[in-house]
Design goal:
By secondary structure, the chain is mainly alpha-helical. The protein is about 60% helix and about 5% strand.
Length: about 625
């Protein structure tokens, strides 16, 4: 979830710590930064009164200062904070209930303690003086970690690992080819992490401006921008879900090479176990691609050729492959780490829902797979809105399935066996949405036979839902901000708006998509009661409803007149074929621009004039 979205959910008290941290950094940084000083002047220097988008802009401007400040504070803190940071920055944990974070922490602590005991036995076991093996590497790192931690006590200071010492230990771990989880387990032997006290640690992170804690919801929020920053501080160049994509693409031999490079067992280990071991080890993406997956005798050219094939297999779109190994590694890392927005855009809201439903039909355990992979609560129902809030894309879900499972889905859908099966599946759902958009007017008029003749199979009971979903897909193509998180927050069991379009932090358009089988849509009294209830809820939560937009195949004269004369809410009416006309005009332009204000004129909108103004 983006920082701007989190700021719109939490109240003023809950975001005060973050704003205070930002305010202090802005005051210090603005003295020597004219650009920042100008940005602060633009909001009259009052950060506490700034909008969510302005606060996000300020954060992006002082991000480097923020990162340095956080780094210093973490170094001065306990090892418990580092364990919690590692937990909160993992895929799926950026929005979670406090009680669930405590459960995950307890599980993580037990696993770390078990690994610590295993490594302690390896250290005690030792190695012959004439050999250098994994046990000796662990012993060396343990001795250096102990010295770095306890040497402060010689000078009558609190024991801790300083920034300089941490940098040296990171280099040492890299040269000894120790994984992140091994380093954490050895540090646990030296500086034992408390098993309890998670809430106090969360409050410490909140005071640093790293997390938002909602007391009303009893939830913790870590914005995507903060997750990226925390990964950088941990030396993590790729999130686990992207490491998984690379591993799915590798051969069994390459997976074994990666395990052997870190002294891990390979005999009698299944492909799935190899992948999980590598992910949980915390091996960096760059190390994996530069050394671990290759045979020791492979030349630089052979390694470059392998990465060239990997770029093709991952379907990374690029003009230049890069001439060096490092350039190709950088290309893969940058493409994957910046893929989220693009991947959400590749499927409409409707397409994403269809994909998830299809996978659940194929694999009844799909909900359990998602919960286990992204450490989600067992009692939670996972839908596409939840996945979007956790920044889990359609691609992420397909990569949870093994290569054989994905091929099984592809074959059952009757898709071509050429190319990457995951991308073939995604393309089929994108095409399905395109077909519905092409026949949007038939969908609005609930013309089942017309849809069948056009090659679109939709059961009559689903027509209303499909019309709503396709309407959202069209508005998304028009580059409007369809705010599913806010819609979910505003809706109740009784009052459920179809569409919420965010114009700014506080200004919104509430939309209703209405199908009608015979004649014009004429139910004004019922519809007006609905939309007025939505408007009241939105305004009670501090939102300003700039307009209510009702989309239907056509409207009766009485409906149009009643909407124009309504003094309680501002209502715009748009016919379905008119919205399709606007979409076609938008797609035909080389550099289209659609202003949301065109939908706020009131009364029956003239789609032809709007189309000309794009």
């Amino acid at each position: 979830m983006k920082l701007n979205q989190v700021l719109s959910i939490v109240n003023q008290v809950e975001k005060s710590k973050f704003i205070s941290c930002l305010d202090r950094l802005c005051s210090d940084a603005a003295k020597n930064n004219k650009k920042l000083a100008k940005t602060i002047d633009n909001i009259d220097g009052q950060i506490k009164n700034a909008s969510g988008s302005e606060i996000t802009q300020l954060f992006n401007t002082v991000r480097d200062f923020f990162k340095e400040s956080v780094k210093e504070q973490i170094l001065m803190s306990s090892a418990q904070l580092n364990l919690l940071i590692n937990l909160l920055s993992r895929d799926g944990n950026c929005v979670a209930r406090i009680s669930w974070i405590e459960t995950l922490y307890a599980k993580e602590w037990k696993e770390l303690s078990k690994l610590s005991k295993d490594l302690q036995n390896c250290i005690k076991q030792g190695s012959p003086e004439s050999t250098f093996d994994r046990n000796k590497a662990l012993k060396i790192y343990h001795a250096c970690m102990s010295e770095a931690y306890f040497n402060d006590q010689k000078n009558n200071r609190d024991a801790k690992v300083t920034d300089d010492e941490r940098s040296i230990l990171n280099v040492l771990a890299n040269e000894l080819e120790l994984t992140t989880d091994e380093c954490a387990a050895i540090e646990h032997l030296v500086d034992v992490i408390p098993e309890t006290g998670v809430l106090d640690a969360l409050n410490n992170l909140r005071d640093m401006g790293l997390v938002f804690v909602s007391k009303k919801r009893q939830e913790v929020f870590v914005p995507d921008e903060i997750v990226t920053l925390l990964n950088e501080l941990q030396g993590k160049d790729l999130a686990d879900k992207y490491i998984l994509r690379i591993l799915r693409t590798l051969t069994d031999a390459e997976l074994s090479n990666a395990l052997k490079a870190h002294g891990r067992k390979i005999r009698g280990i299944s492909r799935a176990e190899k992948i999980q071991t590598i992910i949980h080890s915390g091996i960096s993406g760059s190390k994996l691609l530069s050394d671990d997956i290759h045979n020791p005798e492979d030349t630089q050219n052979q390694r470059k050729e392998r990465l060239k094939q990997l770029i093709t297999d991952l379907e990374i779109d690029t003009d230049k492959l890069g001439t060096t190994l490092d350039e190709r590694i950088g290309l893969i890392l940058n493409s994957l780490s910046g893929a989220t927005e693009k991947e959400f855009d590749c499927l409409s809201v409707s397409g994403f829902k269809q994909l998830l439903k299809t996978l659940e039909d194929h694999f009844p355990s799909m909900q359990a797979v998602l919960k286990e992979a992204f450490e989600l609560e067992p009692t939670e129902i996972i839908d596409t809105e939840k996945l979007r809030s956790l920044s889990i894309t359609p691609h992420d879900i397909l990569y949870l399935l093994s290569n054989d499972e994905v091929k099984e889905v592809r074959d059952s859908m009757g898709l071509s066996k050429r190319g990457n099966p995951r991308f073939a599946i995604l393309e089929s759902f994108a095409n399905a949405t395109d077909k519905l958009i092409e026949n949007y007017d038939l969908l609005a008029r609930r013309d089942v036979n017309g849809l069948k003749d056009a090659g679109v199979e939709v059961i009559e009971a689903d027509l209303g839902i499909k019309f709503e979903e396709v309407t959202k897909a069209i508005l998304e193509v028009l580059e409007l901000n369809i705010d599913e998180d806010l819609r979910k927050d505003l809706n109740t069991t009784k009052d459920k708006a179809d569409i919420v379009i965010s114009l700014s932090d506080n200004d919104i358009i509430i939309g209703e998509a209405k199908t009608c089988k015979n004649g014009d849509f004429a139910k004004y009294s019922t519809t007006s009661r609905q939309v007025k209830a939505y408007v009241n809820r939105a305004e009670n939560q501090g939102k300003r409803v700039a307009q209510v937009l009702i989309i239907a195949p056509s409207f009766s004269d009485d409906f149009i007149e009643s909407a124009e004369m309504d003094t309680e809410v501002n209502i715009s009416l748009l016919e379905a074929h008119g919205l399709k006309l606007i979409l076609d005009a938008f797609k035909s332009k080389r550099n289209p621009s659609f202003a949301p204000k065109l939908l706020t004129k009131g009364g029956l909108l003239k789609a032809e004039l709007i189309a000309k103004n794009i």
